[in-house]
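Private note to self, pasted from the team thread so I don't lose it. Backbone tokens:
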């Protein structure tokens, strides 16, 4: 770049020189670029797959709150900027380019398309910027490409298994109520998240496995994607109610928003609710548990994810080895544990 400017000046091409000068000035004014490093301001770019997702916007809010907290505790300035990928990988790549060209110190990416991670890895490596993927998990090959690439999230199998165990426990303790047709088989429908998302694939698989491996006979009436979305969850469930009505004994949902959508559909149809379970533990889901509508959920620790990312980003900008202060698997992965939540847990928590 410097050489380009010099050679350009020596040949005197005023337009290009002026453009480069202006670009340099702009970068300088925005306080970005490598010159920003070494000062007390840490720049963290956060690229979200979409802001229009209950769980993801919770992570975003938690990050913002934690950043303010760390600023006060540690007397530093953290500049957190967020970009909404609007579920479009091309849009997100442009946002990544912008963060890198503005000289961010750490880049956090909630990738739109998990299979596009290699492109982002290339860009971050070229810019020498540490990269933290979260919630949407690229393949291990992409994460292991370099030491300064990380993944923060929950284990997809674990959430599925815990969800299945919630249902298993209910089946063992309230069989009469649950087994509506009394055939000893658990008839269920499955609301799946986005196709290809690790949490959709593995939660679907492991929730049912928790039952079958305990010897429970199950029958899948229907399963389909509702893309993590409440309204789509309602539409799908309404369709299944039309087909199967009260034969549905359990609704497994890969997340809470779709589970709440299923509850909406049963209420609109004025049918008694089957057992409905979700994942995430969003605020509206906890409220639905208190109301006795949602049987249970599994905590997907938004706050833990946010905190791990903020602290990882801080450690990296200080040039520390993050594995010394954060619990890290294989030098790349930070896993947040999941936890079952039912009405009983909420009540115990309130009293305890
Ligand atoms: C899942 C979460 C969903 C949705 C999705 C987005 O972990 O359970 O509600 O937010 O991530 O990637
Ligand atoms: Ca049955």
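Design output:
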């Amino acid at each position: 770049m410097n050489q380009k400017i010099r050679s350009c000046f020596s040949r005197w091409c005023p337009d290009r020189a002026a453009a480069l000068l202006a670009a340099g000035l702009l970068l300088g004014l925005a306080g970005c670029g490598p010159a920003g490093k070494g000062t007390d301001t840490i720049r963290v770019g956060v690229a979200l797959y979409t802001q229009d997702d209950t769980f993801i916007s919770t992570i975003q809010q938690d990050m913002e709150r934690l950043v303010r907290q760390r600023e006060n505790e540690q007397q530093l300035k953290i500049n957190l900027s967020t970009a909404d990928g609007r579920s479009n990988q091309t849009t997100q790549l442009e946002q990544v380019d912008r963060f890198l060209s503005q000289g961010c110190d750490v880049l956090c990416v909630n990738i739109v398309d998990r299979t596009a991670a290699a492109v982002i890895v290339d860009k971050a490596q070229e810019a020498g910027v540490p990269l933290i993927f979260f919630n949407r998990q690229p393949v291990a090959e992409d994460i292991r490409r370099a030491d300064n690439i990380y993944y923060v999230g929950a284990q997809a199998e674990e959430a599925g298994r815990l969800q299945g165990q919630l249902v298993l426990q209910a089946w063992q303790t309230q069989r009469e109520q649950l087994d509506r047709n009394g055939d000893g088989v658990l008839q269920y429908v499955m609301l799946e998240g986005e196709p290809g998302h690790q949490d959709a694939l593995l939660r679907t698989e492991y929730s049912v496995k928790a039952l079958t491996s305990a010897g429970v006979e199950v029958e899948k009436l229907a399963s389909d994607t509702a893309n993590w979305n409440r309204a789509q969850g309602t539409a799908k469930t309404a369709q299944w109610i039309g087909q199967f009505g009260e034969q549905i004994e359990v609704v497994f949902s890969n997340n809470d928003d779709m589970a709440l959508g299923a509850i909406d559909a049963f209420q609109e149809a004025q049918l008694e609710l089957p057992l409905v379970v979700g994942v995430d533990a969003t605020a509206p889901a906890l409220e639905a548990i208190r109301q006795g509508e949602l049987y249970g959920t599994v905590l997907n620790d938004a706050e833990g994810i946010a905190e791990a990312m903020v602290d990882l980003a801080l450690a990296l900008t200080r040039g520390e080895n993050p594995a010394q202060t954060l619990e890290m698997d294989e030098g790349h992965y930070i896993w947040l544990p999941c936890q079952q939540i039912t009405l009983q847990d909420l009540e115990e928590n309130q009293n305890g």
